[in-house]
Amino acid sequence: MNASHPGPGHVPGRAAVLGAGPIGCATAGYLALQGMEVSIFDLSPEAVSAISASGIIRLEGVIQGQAPIRAATTDIARVLEGARLVISAVPASAHKALARALAPFIQDGALLLIQPGQTLSAVTFLHTAMHHGMRAGITAVETLNTLFTGRLASPGRVQVYAVKNSVWYAALPASRTAAAGALLERLFPSLSPLPSILQVSLHNFNAILHPPITLLNAGSIDGGEDFLFYVQGGTPHIMQVVEDLDGERMEILRALGIPGFPLTQWFHEAYGVQESDYHAAVAATAPYATIKGPRSLQTRLLLEDIPTGLVPYCSIARALGVPVPTMNATVRLCSSLYRRDFFATGRTLRALDLGGLDGPALLQKLGPDSTELPWA
Amino acid sequence: MGLKIGMIGAGNLGQAMAAHLALEGHEVSIYNRTKARVDEINERGGILIEGVLQGLAPMHLATSDISQVVPGRDMLIVTVPASSHRAIAQLSAHYLEDGQAVVLHPGHTFGAIDFFAALEQKGVDRDITFAEIQTSLLTSRLTGPARVNVSAIKNALPISVFPADHGFGRVEMLFQVYPSSIRAPDVLKTGLDNLNATVHPPVTLLNLGQIDRAEKFLYYWEGFTPAVSRLVEAVDRERVALARALGVEPITIQEFFSTAYETKGEALWEKVRSNTAYSEITAPTTVNTRLIYEDLPTGLVPYASLGQELGVPTPNCRALIQIANEIFRRDFWKGARTMRNLGLSGLGPEGIINFVHTGKRP
Fold first, then answer.
1. What domains lie within chain B, and their CATH numbers?
2. Which residue of chain A is at minimal alpha-carbon distance from B330?
3. What is the pLDDT of residues A236-263, one digit of tens each?
4. Which terminal residue of chain A, N or C, has fewer Cβ atoms less than 10 Å from its own Cβ?
5. How far apart are CA A175 and CA B262, in angstroms?
6. Does the predicted interface ipTM exceed a cut of 0.90?
7. How far is B265 from chain A (nearest CA, A)?
8. To the nearest whole angstrom, how far is the Cα of B234 from the nearest Cα of chain A?
9. Beta strands in A5-77 (DSSP E)
10. Which domains does chain A have, with CATH numbers?
């Protein structure tokens, strides 16, 4: 372990990490160094074969060590065997497929931590798994961001750039957050609880920031031009659209009576940015200075952030009767850009069998006082 | 015998057409709001026209006083941006006379009805034939004081009149000077074939980043990418559905590019990017461009508003207007050519069709 990130100590038990990209490998290695017995799963044989052969994940960067791995395999049943902690480390667009795959095998009483999450990821995971034969009673915990940032140096070797200093989480139902936290916060001191998954889900800033910048630079991206995504792509006029989207998000929170804060405050807390003007804030965010725009429109900045970010925002707003014209317009234009209907394929309350709810019903099922699963 | 013409607007197009008609033997007076332009014409003693048309064309009068060019004229030709048609109607309302023709060049969507509705609001009821030319007849640009270069006279442009029952009698001169022009059945045809509205707003907004950064790029050849094309086609399908709901058989954007220009390829973006007429058209270097400020209130907004009136869905038109409202911090619906502002609310498709033919409200 790196001295600046002392481990919280020995934690017994089995963990399963699903997804062997940089985040999955960093998470698996980190957990193994905490003393857990860790297995890792990926759909792709190439992603797991090196780990399987050596039996270790090598961590470099801000966390260092050789982490023993019990199994690295494409067989999800084997990875989930006896695992009381299960961690999803795949992009949100793969959540449904992963939930289908784990449904028959996840162990009763397991704790499922979804990182990264996007909006309504705990609901999506449970809904899909239960529709595909999950008998086990599990607790799903959602986050928005990843616990680590890093990159794969080679298969089984991950360069960890940073351990995030604050990642929010909440369990579904909310009454289980405290029990989940007892284990999770011991493992990951950076996790901090919020009263409900609605509060976590409605602070998905990717959904506010990525779609307008990508959409209003679509010509450049589709033309394969190089530009700095935030510094050049977030022009003053485009950041006005971001500001309006953020204002609509705040209106949704207000209608639910859930405390919330604007994107600019997040810039302040995460990156020490002082500016309250949206354009000035993006320009002053140091880690954004070198981030490039995507080279094609086959990018998660729309293909993931629309269906798992703006679409659930629009759907929740609709249930509450909150007008979100800019969110709706953004989803509509992106649908035409790709010739697919994101309102039909994305995470709507209706698709999650929660259609027809009003504000109080939504709060009762997903809010801070929820005590059972929303479909109970 | 020549006609007495009042040309409203002395920009590229106004000066080019004023000079052309004067050379054809008509008595042309020209009005411009900014006096400097007028002074230049008076100093030169006319307008010097070059390119495919040549000569020094004398003006009967050049003035910044609109009351001097409206009364006593057979035909007024309005060449100001379409978003100013209403303002011109209000300025000229009390000088208009029975028997005149008012030509909107170009009309965009429902320019004649907008002009007519503005006169109604002023309580002015005159026997006027309005005409709309679908796009500009001349490709022109000012090259100096009272000096204009015309690089092309366009062929086969549709012209419509309002009320359609008036027929083309008062605007026959246009067909003599521009003989390839086509007589369109009514202003619904020319208004709903306004392709600027389906092309300019999506291409401009999806390239807004580059425009806001003042980067130089070829508006069509570089800005019209395959993804941009998909949005343009989605907007165009909404326009086509609106036209059909009013009994108009529109030209589709695909047909337009196949017939108006020599192009290659099957996909729309291939046609646009092989059109040599677009090879030098650069993008604006500021977001404050007519491609938004003119094409929204006089194109996309009337489309979206008509859709609401007829129950035809126009989600892409509406979404573009919404995003533009955020970007420009203004409400493009306000003061625009909505069915309400045009006095078309509640008429229904048959009422609208009847109105554009008779000029009479039910």
1. 4-186 (3.40.50.720), 196-358 (1.10.1040.10)
2. A240
3. 999 999 999 999 999 999 999 999 999 9
4. C
5. 68
6. yes
7. 18
8. 6
9. 14-18, 37-41, 56-61, 65-68, 71-73
10. 14-200 (3.40.50.720), 206-345 (1.10.1040.10)
